[in-house]
Write a structure and sequence with these properties.
Blueprint (H helix, E strand, L loop, with lengths): L1 E4 L4 H11 L4 E3 L17 H16 L3 E10 L6 E2 L12 H11 L7 E12 L2 E13 L15 E3 L11 H7 L1 H16 L2
Parallel strand pairs: 1-2, 1-3
Antiparallel strand pairs: 3-4, 3-5, 5-6, 6-7
Helix pairs in contact: 1-4, 1-5, 4-5
The structure holds inosinic acid (IMP).
């Protein structure tokens, strides 16, 4: 089955493709001729995921999905949350975001955090949402070079390594996005489109 996924982020694309498996072929917005940035200006992950999937559906009328992810840090009142991509700057500057998070966490003893992903699927013109969460903690320096974004500072509960020290398979097995995508796959298989 072919399905459009609202991302041009190569990391995300390969993570999601790995969980979806061979039965699904992901198509990017660019491959559908959509070259502009897809708007995401809502104030919740649910709202942003929905806004992105509706944007794609309105242009293509094809089955599609979008995800939105936030890192929710307890000691920061849930920040950066829905603003995770633009925490430090207007762009997707991972290094600047990581530096700001480290600074804002200085002196905090409560290091609890979670990644939360919301996927919005539009299939046969109807929207369905799936959520994936991984709980963990923020350490006080960056370790590891795998993955992307906040991965070098996040250690999932039950592990002693950051997401950036894990292989893609290890991260996918327990990650927020991996969990949300597994729910998406289960749903797609249940309707046997
Ligand atoms: P997006 O909505 O999935 O684009 O995610 C927003 C921001 O959250 C990204 O720019 C990254 O900084 C961060 N992020 C999303 N997913 C991950 C992940 O799997 N690991 C680390 N950071 C992530």
């Amino acid at each position: 089955m072919k399905i459009i996924f609202a991302t041009n982020n190569a990391h995300k694309l390969s993570e999601v493709q790995a969980v979806l498996g061979d039965g699904f072929t992901l198509v990017t917005p660019r491959e559908c001729g959509i070259t502009e940035d897809i708007p995401e200006d809502q104030d919740t992950l649910e709202g942003n995921a929905s806004q992105k999937s509706h944007y794609l559906y309105d242009r293509t009328r094809e089955d599609c999905f979008a995800d939105d992810t936030g890192l929710e840090v307890e000691a920061l009142g849930g920040a950066p949350g829905v603003h995770s991509a633009r925490y430090a700057t207007d762009g997707h500057d991972f290094d600047a975001n990581n530096r700001l998070l480290l600074k804002n966490m200085e002196g905090k003893t409560n290091r609890k955090a979670r990644f939360r992903t919301v996927i919005s699927l539009i299939i046969n013109g109807e929207e369905h949402q799936f959520e994936g969460i991984v709980e963990g903690r923020i350490i006080d320096h960056e370790i590891g070079h795998e993955g992307f974004g906040y991965d070098p500072m996040f250690i999932p509960d039950g592990y002693d390594r950051t997401f950036a020290q894990m292989t893609a398979e290890e991260k996918n097995a327990i990650s927020h996005r991996g969990r949300a995508v597994k729910k998406l796959v289960a749903y797609l298989q249940s309707i046997e489109k």
